[in-house]
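Worked example 2:
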Amino acid sequence: MNQVSEKRKYQRCTNAVCKIMLSCDKKHWEEIDLCDISAGGLKFTAKKDLESNANYYFDISVYNMLSEFNLKFEASMVRKEVNGNENNYAVKFINVNKYNQIQLDEVIESRIVVAKQNQPRPNYEEGVYTFFLIPRIRPKRVNLYR
């Protein structure tokens, strides 16, 4: 039996779509630098050293075209990487309100679509051509005289 499993459920977005605040206790908040985000979690950098077995709280202000959404998530640490004086963290959202998760996924998906539409299209007059080479099939010879 051939099984195919996808690694991710949600699309990730790397361009700035939101402002993210982090808290360990829901009282003291600090802004973090976002690397990428999806509806399942996020990756960020911080100079502060965070515990790997604790839960964290995120207040995410998502900007979509003309509107702004404030979403609150609780997350657990999945991965921690140390690069010199910066720490890279990956967290997974837990106890997620499905409405917030779907809303975040839709905003990210719309940003990806807009980014793809704004990519420059190739100029076909500069030598990018496509040719279809179809082999010629010879018809069978018909013998009129036997």
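The helical segments are 98-117. The beta strands are 18-23, 30-31, 33-37, 41-46, 55-64, 67-83, 86-94.
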